[in-house]
Design brief:
This protein is 64% helix and 6% strand. It is mainly α. It has a two-stranded parallel sheet with strand order 1-2. β1, α1 and β2 form a beta-alpha-beta unit. α2 crosses α4 and α3 crosses α4. The protein is globular, with a radius of gyration of 15 Å.
Length: 100
């Protein structure tokens, strides 16, 4: 399982709510015995678009290109799929590093 790292916003209420959501997203797979990976937004964007400075439109466009069966995902769905791709790349890199 993988989630995107967060940033602190100026709005304390929003930051607190995001923290609660992240805790739930991390707890469920951890309780099932799965390792939870965490990736910075720039790492996720770079894995999908090739640059960490990509915007949401570019991420959604590349997700539609990389995963044609995903159709035209919403920005949030594209972000989730991008995190999954970044996680897959990281797992592959770790496996390749262990084989050397």
């Amino acid at each position: 399982a993988a989630i995107e790292e967060t940033f602190v916003t100026a709005n304390g209420q929003s930051t607190l709510k995001l923290g609660h959501a992240r805790a739930a997203a991390m707890l469920a797979p951890a309780r099932a015995g799965l390792t939870v990976g965490e990736y910075a937004a720039t790492v996720v964007k770079k894995a999908v678009v090739g640059t960490g400075a990509a915007d949401k439109t570019q991420v959604a466009f590349m997700i539609a290109r990389l995963l044609p069966t995903a159709g035209s995902p919403t920005a949030d769905a594209a972000d989730a799929l991008a995190v999954a791709i970044a996680h897959a790349h990281a797992r592959k890199s770790r496996r390749l590093g262990q084989a050397a």
